[in-house]
């Protein structure tokens, strides 16, 4: 595990540890824009954060041009992946995204990181027009590590519940398409044909 260096402001992570059970195949490896969906998301995260590491099974993604770290909490959902990223990160701030966000872009994520740096919060979670929080496309300060670890130890699995007690900045964005994820073959087909 890496130790925080105050000279490194940002690190980026993409969560790839899910089972993709509703999709019937690995969502991260869906073909997208001449590569795979995870390559698209990882490139956008790297553009905004200056680096990217995948969090999930290394054997499944070893052919991709990104470092991969195993999830320290396999089977515990994305909160475990977030904690793994924070424990491995050398940075003060961490941009963490799910692998199934086809509309995500580097420019959008750069705006998110800038907002986080100016927020005086522990984490910045964007919300779309509906007001629904999007913790799987968010910025987490290294200060979140202990609170999330304690939540996992209490058997908490829901990401927003795992952030209880932290200073959360809700960053409102006018377009919810940034957070459209794909969980089923029908959603994937609808997205690609949309």
Topology:
Blueprint: E1 10-15, E2 31-32, E3 35-36, H1 37-49, E4 53-55, H2 58-61, E5 68-69, H3 78-88, E6 93-98, H4 106-117, E7 123-127, E8 137-141, H5 144-153, H6 159-162, E9 168-172, H7 185-193
Parallel strand pairs: 1-4, 1-6, 4-5, 7-9
Antiparallel strand pairs: 2-3, 6-8, 7-8
Structure report:
With 194 residues, the chain is of the alpha/beta class. 32% of the residues lie in helices and 19% in strands. It has one domain: Alpha-Beta Complex (Spore Coat Polysaccharide Biosynthesis Protein SpsA, Chain A). The strands form two sheets. It has a seven-stranded mixed β-sheet, with helices on both faces. A two-stranded antiparallel sheet has the order 2-3. Helix 1 packs across helix 4 and helix 3 packs across helix 5. The longest helix has 13 residues. The chain is globular. The N terminus is likely disordered.
Which CATH architecture is right? Alpha-Beta Complex
Sheet bearing the most strands, described? 7 strands, mixed
**pLDDT averaged over residues:** 91
Low-confidence stretches: 1-5
Widest sheet: strand order? 5-4-1-6-8-7-9
Q: What coarse outline follows from CA principal-axis ratios? A: globular
> Could you name the CATH class?
Alpha Beta
What portion of residues belong to β-strands? 15-25%
Total tally of structural domains: 1
